[in-house]
Amino acid sequence: MGAPPTSGEAVPPIRQALLCATVACSAGVAHAQGQPEADDWLTIHGFPEQVQGDLIQVSPTPVPWQDRFTIEVRASRSTLRDGYHHHPYRSFKAVAVIDCTFRKGWYLTIQYYTQPMWQGPSSDKKEFRENQAPVAFNGIPGEPSRKLIAAACRTR
Questions:
Q1: What is the pLDDT of residues 74-105, one digit of tens each?
Q2: Where are the alpha helices (DSSP H) in the chain?
Q3: What total of structural domains would you count in the chain?
Q4: Which of 18, 29, 97, 141 has the greatest number of CB atoms lying within 10 Å of its CB?
Q5: Is residue 35 one of the residues assigned to a domain?
Q6: What is the DSSP annotation of 69-96?
Q7: 114: helix, coil or strand?
Q8: Spacing of C-alpha 5 from chain mean position
């Protein structure tokens, strides 16, 4: 895979992948719904091989939804954290809505895990209304949520 990217190098590949996905969607290419394969996730923070570190990944394939789009997000944290509604977790998988008009994102669903890297059974699943659970990665430097939204919206 080569040398790990620095934080300055992480955004352009995401932007490029989202642009490619947007072009494919606008060309009418149908994508099967389901979880992306392990190699299909784009890392925006951390290193997948470091199981005990902080990791944020997104699926490169946004799905149009109303005048916005959804994107799959997953995160694994270095320590036990409290999620929305004070639910303890080490990792989660989520579907987020990205609104490029207002440059913000929020989670529609979050599936929590007590183990890192989405291992073991899911400990809980929460559903949220618009703006109820903003896309945020508290305690991770470099504003990854802002970078994720900015990169995704450059393709629109």
A1: 999 999 999 998 989 999 999 999 999 999 99
A2: 7-26, 144-153
A3: 1
A4: 18
A5: no
A6: EEEEEEEEEEEEEE-GGG-EEEEEEEEE
A7: coil
A8: 18
